[in-house]
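Appendix B, example 12.
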Amino acid sequence: MNQVKIGKFIAERRKKSGLTQMQLAEKLGITDRAVSKWERGKSMPDSAVMLELCAVLKISVNDLLCGEIVTMENYNKELESKLLEMIKQKEQADKRLLTIEIVMVIVCLIPLLVAVVLASVLTLVEETETIIVLAGIIPLLVAIPFALKIEQQAGYYICKKCGYKYIPKYSSVFWAMHISTTRYMKCPKCHKKSWQKKVISKE
């Protein structure tokens, strides 16, 4: 999506409605600074206010996402184009999240490895060795729930039995046996358990 084009379109429709940035912000229950950022192409309206914004500006959501009034002849084509673009953006965001997950786990493993090395190399009393190792484990324990949340939400899992692609529940991911991002889970469609691979695309 072209945020600059959308921002100019919002500004144009606001002025056509005879509203200042402050007045539009008051109608939406937000700050005029947020409206200014939209109009300068610095950010997009949040989904929570998007419908209300469109109602105030007398446009459709598709018009907003296109940055122009979409004629009926081009409506389906533009809608399909925007949906494909949103899917592509989600896939890119999911890839970034999965990269963050890998980096986060690696970074959190470093203190544990350092702690294990120190405990084995240095001559320390048993209690001190235990404290050092436990201190090394803590960052990893803190990171695991966040990593699993990313693992659950980014992309999809594909059932090996029926080919169904879906986003599992957090509890399913948490308790599943796994090898890297492949997990042994029950498919919500065919209800059979299999080793299900993580994929980014729904296609």
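The helical segments are 3-16, 21-28, 32-39, 47-57, 61-66, 72-121, 126-153, 170-175. Residues 155-203 form one domain.
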